[in-house]
Amino acid sequence: MVIAARFESTCPTCRQRIEIGESVAWSKGAKAVHIACPERLPDDVEILTAIVNGYAEGSASQAQAMLDRIEDRLFAEYEQTVGAPAEAATLPKGIYRVSLTGAEKTYGVTHVNVQVVPNAKYQNVKVGEWHGESIGTYSTVRGFRFWDGVDPTGARTLAIKAAFAVLMNAADPIEYAKAYAVESSTCWRCGADLVDEQSRARLMGPDCYRMQERGA
Question: Is 142 exposed, middle or buried (0-12, 13-18, 19+ CB in 10 A)?
Fold first, then answer.
């Protein structure tokens, strides 16, 4: 017979929740089942729902891990629909010397050497500083995603983000890369010392120059 569910339960057919008041098929001695089972959710969404609603074993860390998986999948589907974003990401791999105040006096306060490493597979760029750990990744769609242990409000993180914002809004960010190479006499792409006149004129070592010519 068809009745209104008096208790919350799990449909034995589709393993999804039956809410109080929902119309179900029921007979004495048997479990209530949906009249028409809803479309089955992907396993990770179903598990996450169970964790959040407290009717399956789980933890906050498991729930967060599941959310991250769902987010990654949704972004991948979105990017397939609209095409790859016009990434930050159009920034070439390299090291960029960025002045934050117009006067370079104190490194990390007035200027930062930002290192950018694009990742074509994930359509993002790893952002950090030269000779320092990166703070995380940036994509046009998602913005910054920081590594575990990185304080988003820390002085170092804020300085790198500010410098990166300058690069993103620059008409010619390569000028900042050249500024780094001139100041340090090292390749703006990899940081290696420039040991010959041709490399110093290009502001780039021979290996990086060949790779850039190939579009690598």
Answer: middle
Q: Which residues contact 53 (CB under 8 A, 6 or more apart)?
A: 17
**Token pair in block for residue 83:** 């095409």
Residues 29 and 94 grouped into a single domain: no
73-114 pLDDT, tens digit each? 776 665 555 444 344 557 889 999 998 887 778 887 888 999
pLDDT band, very low/low/confident/very high, at 59 (cuts 50, 70, 90): low
Whole-angstrom distance, CA of residue 189 vs CA of residue 180 = 10
Asked whether residue 150 falls in the same domain as residue 187, the answer is yes
Domain that residue 74 falls in: 41-83
Of 70, 68, 151, 166, whose CA–CA distance to 116 is shortest? 166
Element (H, E) at 132: none
108: its two tokens: 């990390």
